[in-house]
Design brief:
Elements lengths: L3 E10 L2 E11 L3 E6 L6 H8 L6 E6 L2 E2 L5 H7 E4 L11 H6 L14 H13 L15 H14 L4 E5 L7 H16 L3 E5 L3 H7 L2 E6 L2 E6 L1 H4 L2 H8 L1 E6 L6 E7 L2
Parallel strand pairs: 3-8, 3-9, 6-7, 7-8
Antiparallel strand pairs: 1-2, 1-4, 4-5, 9-10, 11-12
Function: Part of the ABC transporter complex HmuTUV involved in hemin import. Responsible for energy coupling to the transport system.
Family: Belongs to the ABC transporter superfamily.
Keywords: ATP-binding, Nucleotide-binding, Translocase, Transport
Length: about 260
C-alpha cells in the first residue's frame, strides 16, 4: 500500500506559475481523475507527484519527501504512464513490457525468474499476451496503449499515475483502458489518471479533482464535482448534467454565452 500527500504544492515552469497551492491526499484502492481545461496544470501536477519537476510545498510518498527519495525507490512505489509516448525502437512487445522491471534491477544485472513472472502477469492483466512477439512500432494505437499500460503494470508498484491515457484512442479502446485502471484500483492500488473525457471520468472514477489555472476548484465524488454551473465557469460551456443513472452523464450544447 502507498499514500501520496500534497501540501501547498506549487510549480513554476520558466517564468510562469503553473500550479498554485495544491493540497490533497491519495490512498490505496481508489481511482482518482484529475480533470480540467487545457493548460490548467493537470499534467504538471502529476509530474510533481513523481518528483519529475521541482515543486514548492511538500510532496510526500508514504510520508517521505518524494524529491529526497532515491529514484529507483520512487519508481518501485509509483508506476507511470506518461502522455504522448512515441515508440522509436523496434522492440518486441515482450521486451518492451520487460522495461517495466528496470527499477528492480541492479546495474548490468539480468532478468531473473521473478522478473519474467512479473512480465507475464502484466501482459495478462493488460490482455496483450497474444501480442508478445509483435514489433511494438507496428501496433495499432489501441494495441500500443495496452502494451504501454502493461509496461507500467510490470513494475508491480502499489500506485499508478497515468497522464492522458485515452489520448488518440477510439471510444472502444478508451473503455478498455478505463476498465484496466478501474481493475487496478479495485485490486487495492492507488490510481490517478489525468483525463479529458468527463463522462468516462464520471463513470469510472471514485473521486475527481477539478483544476483550473493551477488551482483545485472542486474535490469530491463525480456528482459533487461535475455540476452544470461549474462546467460553465471552468470550461466555458453550456452543458446538462444528468444524475439519475448509475453515474452522471454530460451533454454539451456549445460555448457559454
Amino acid at each position: 500500500m502507498v499514500t501520496i500527500t500534497l501540501n501547498d504544492v506549487g510549480v513554476t515552469l520558466g517564468r510562469r506559475a503553473v500550479v498554485h497551492g495544491v493540497s490533497a491526499a491519495f490512498g490505496p484502492g481508489t481511482l482518482t481523475g484529475i480533470v480540467g481545461p487545457n493548460g490548467a496544470g493537470k499534467s504538471t501536477l502529476a509530474r510533481a507527484m513523481l518528483a519529475l519537476v521541482s515543486a514548492s510545498g511538500s510532496v510526500r510518498v508514504d510520508d517521505v519527501d518524494a524529491a529526497a527519495m532515491p529514484r529507483g525507490e520512487l519508481a518501485r512505489r509509483i508506476a507511470y504512464v506518461p502522455q504522448g509516448q512515441t515508440l522509436h525502437w523496434p522492440l518486441t512487445v515482450e521486451r518492451l513490457v520487460g522495461l517495466g522491471r528496470l527499477p528492480h534491477l541492479a546495474p548490468m544485472s539480468r532478468i531473473a525468474d521473478t522478473d519474467t513472472a512479473a512480465i507475464e502477469r502484466a501482459m495478462a492483466r493488460a490482455d496483450v499476451l497474444d501480442l508478445r512477439d509483435r514489433i511494438a512500432t507496428e501496433l495499432s494505437g489501441g494495441e500500443r496503449a495496452r502494451v504501454l499500460f502493461a509496461r507500467a503494470l510490470a513494475v508491480e508498484a502499489p500506485a499508478l499515475i497515468a497522464d492522458e491515457p485515452l489520448a488518440s484512442l477510439d471510444p472502444g479502446h478508451q473503455i478498455d483502458v478505463m476498465d484496466m485502471l478501474r481493475a487496478e484500483a479495485a485490486g487495492g492500488a492507488l490510481v490517478i489518471a489525468v483525463l479529458h473525457d468527463l463522462t468516462l471520468a464520471a463513470r469510472y472514477c471514485d473521486r475527481l479533482l477539478l483544476i483550473d489555472s493551477g488551482r483545485i476548484v472542486a474535490d469530491g465524488t463525480p456528482p459533487e464535482v461535475l455540476t452544470a454551473e461549474r462546467l460553465r465557469k471552468v470550461y466555458g460551456i453550456d452543458a446538462r448534467v444528468e444524475t439519475g443513472g448509475e453515474w452522471p452523464t454530460i451533454t454539451t450544447f456549445g460555448r457559454a454565452r
